[in-house]
């Protein structure tokens, strides 16, 4: 028997992805380091399709039709290299290794380069949607060669999520590490979305005085409008959940958020590329701050206002303002994330189509949302859009939201409710709008202490002022 595709690494993601291929009519070879997982998969789900269980790497490779398509779904990092080392010597030119793990795109670039020398296509592929997505249709972000996509694309299109208009949520993102880069930024945006939702919740709780169940209803209402998204939907589910003792679930969970690293990478790489992703950075820092239990404990007694909830009559109007603030901040997060993708694409020569990225995030992935269709439309109308904020529709929406956005931040500041995401987003917006920034003063300081020179608004060239002397200006 020859299988059309193989999956090695059969933990939750790999198992469900293999089942997804099988349910879509593909014959799938399955393999896992620990053989019991392979056996369990075939025993439990063998009836779903054509599986070929392989216990050794050699059998696995032998089971695949050529050119071979070998999907690796193991823990990112060293395990991925170990698996490549094990399988690459068994492969032939033209074969493909598809890494569906959450690899760092720099690792993907290295692996792609190394395997290309042996004629093997290494396809770093971002996959989003968690276990459910892997089974029912994830959003898939493959990088690698155009040639590999020709062979692999139709299969991925079949198993992927479909957007509301039926378009598959997969595209060839770009060469080598482009797919994993885009997946990384997807996760960064996901962090920002979650942080903004968290801030909205906290404001509705502390400033508006609503209970978790009432806030769940508010989110449900928001989910019927422009904020319609998976994350808003599950937020309502989490907020309305009560534990076995009848307490709101959100009140009994330790308030320390964990992270696996893709949000942090998004910020690290943005720093390297010089892209201001302040909203995403605040989201990563907010998780980090929440985890500093001792520091928080030591700081509990610090002075500050205690939030006093609004009168019931004012709460609903405030909730509407929070919706505006959340929406405006969300536009800024996506603006920043897409800027990072554009910058990465430029730096690495990937030629990424930003409209296509928005398009394949419309379904399957964690940030799936009606909103992404609007982003796609914006880039389709103008592929050289300098920023999402330059899109007329988004600019108009922010213009309409901004008074409320500012009011919400005033209330948050006055009442001492931390809103780093909302605040960073507004500061970014105001900084971009500003006629003049204090960066001119920064340049003066740099020239003063380090003779770093500056440019003038009224003349070409670089200049230096003799700060320690007669303060005359000299050309640099
Ligand atoms: P894990 O990330 O928990 O990895 C477990 C798998 O890796 C098992 O199959 C294990 O084999 C295998 N493995 C390890 Br660990 N070291 C190995 C080695 N040296 N050689 C061969 N195999 C090795 O599984 P997961 O949660 O299913 O995630 C798989 C990938 O998908 C990860 O890269 C993850 O970041 C990514 N991802 C996960 C999600 C999600 O929602 N979980 C979403 C999107 C992407 P064993 O059975 O023999 O120990």
UniProtKB/TrEMBL annotation:
Gene Ontology molecular functions: NADP binding; phosphogluconate dehydrogenase (decarboxylating) activity
SMART domains to which the protein is assigned, alphabetical: 6PGD (SM01350)
Amino acids binding substrate: 102, 128-130, 186-187, 191, 260, 287, 446, 452
EC class (word): oxidoreductase
EC number assigned by the record: 1.1.1.44
Pathway(s) served: Carbohydrate degradation; pentose phosphate pathway; D-ribulose 5-phosphate from D-glucose 6-phosphate (oxidative stage): step 3/3
Keywords linked to the UniProt accession: Gluconate utilization, NADP, Oxidoreductase, Pentose shunt
Binding annotation for NADP(+): 9-14, 32-34, 74-76, 102
InterPro entries cross-referenced by the UniProt entry: 6-PGluconate_DH-like_C_sf (IPR008927), 6PGD_dom2 (IPR013328), 6PGDH_C (IPR006114), 6PGDH_Gnd/GntZ (IPR006113), 6PGDH_NADP-bd (IPR006115), 6PGdom_BS (IPR006184), NAD(P)-bd_dom_sf (IPR036291), Pgluconate_DH (IPR006183)
Domain 6-phosphogluconate dehydrogenase C-terminal: 179-468
SUPFAM superfamilies, per the entry: 6-phosphogluconate dehydrogenase C-terminal domain-like, NAD(P)-binding Rossmann-fold domains
A biological process term (GO) from this entry: D-gluconate metabolic process
Pfam families with a match to the protein in the record: 6PGD (PF00393), NAD_binding_2 (PF03446)
Residues at the active site: 183 (proton acceptor), 190 (proton donor)
Catalytic activity, as annotated: 6-phospho-D-gluconate + NADP(+) = D-ribulose 5-phosphate + CO2 + NADPH
Subunit structure: Homodimer.
Entry similarity comment: Belongs to the 6-phosphogluconate dehydrogenase family.
Protein task: Catalyzes the oxidative decarboxylation of 6-phosphogluconate to ribulose 5-phosphate and CO(2), with concomitant reduction of NADP to NADPH.
Protein name, as recorded: 6-phosphogluconate dehydrogenase, decarboxylating
């Amino acid at each position: 028997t020859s299988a059309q595709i193989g999956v090695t690494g059969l933990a939750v993601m790999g198992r469900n992805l293999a089942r997804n291929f099988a349910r879509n009519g593909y014959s799938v070879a399955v393999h896992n380091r620990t053989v019991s997982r392979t056996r369990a998969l075939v025993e439990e789900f063998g009836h779903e399709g054509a599986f070929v269980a392989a216990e050794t790497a050699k059998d696995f490779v032998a089971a695949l039709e050529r050119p071979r398509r070998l999907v690796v779904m193991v823990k990112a990092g060293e395990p991925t290299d170990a698996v490549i080392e094990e399988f690459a010597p068994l492969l032939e030119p033209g074969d493909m290794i598809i890494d569906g793990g959450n690899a760092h795109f720099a690792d993907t670039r290295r692996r792609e380069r190394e395997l290309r020398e042996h004629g093997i296509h290494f396809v770093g592929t971002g996959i989003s949607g968690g276990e459910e997505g892997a089974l029912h249709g994830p959003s898939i972000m493959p990088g690698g060669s155009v040639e590999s996509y020709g062979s692999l694309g139709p299969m991925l299109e079949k198993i992927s999520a479909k957007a509301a208009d039926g378009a598959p949520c997969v595209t060839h993102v770009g060469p080598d590490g482009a797919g994993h880069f885009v997946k990384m930024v997807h996760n960064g945006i996901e962090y920002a979305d979650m942080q903004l939702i968290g801030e909205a919740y906290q404001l509705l709780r502390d400033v508006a005085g609503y209970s978790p169940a009432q806030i769940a209803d508010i989110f449900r209402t928001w989910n019927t409008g422009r904020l319609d998204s998976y994350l808003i939907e599950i937020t309502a589910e989490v907020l309305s959940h009560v534990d076995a003792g009848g307490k709101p679930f959100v009140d009994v969970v330790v308030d320390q958020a964990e992270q696996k690293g893709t949000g942090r990478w998004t910020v690290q790489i943005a720093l390297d590329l010089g892209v201001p992703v302040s909203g995403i950075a605040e989201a990563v820092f907010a998780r980090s701050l929440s985890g500093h239990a001792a520091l928080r404990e030591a700081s509990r007694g610090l002075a500050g206002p205690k939030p006093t909830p609004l009168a019931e009559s004012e709460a609903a109007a405030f909730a509407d303002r929070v919706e505006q603030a959340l929406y405006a901040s969300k536009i800024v997060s996506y603006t920043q994330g897409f800027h990072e993708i554009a910058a990465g694409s430029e730096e690495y020569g990937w030629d990424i189509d930003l409209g296509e990225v928005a398009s394949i995030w419309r379904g399957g992935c964690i940030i799936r949302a009606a909103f992404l269709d609007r982003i796609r439309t914006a880039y389709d109308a103008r592929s050289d859009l300098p920023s999402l904020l330059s899109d007329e529709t988004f600019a108009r929406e922010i213009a309409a939201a901004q008074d409320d956005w500012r009011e919400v931040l005033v209330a948050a500041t006055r009442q001492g409710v931390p809103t780093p995401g909302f605040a960073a987003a507004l500061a970014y917006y105001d900084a971009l709008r500003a006629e003049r920034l204090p960066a001119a003063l920064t340049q003066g300081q740099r020239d003063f202490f380090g003779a770093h020179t500056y440019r003038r608004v009224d003349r070409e060239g670089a200049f230096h002022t003799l700060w320690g002397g007669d303060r005359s200006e000299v050309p640099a």
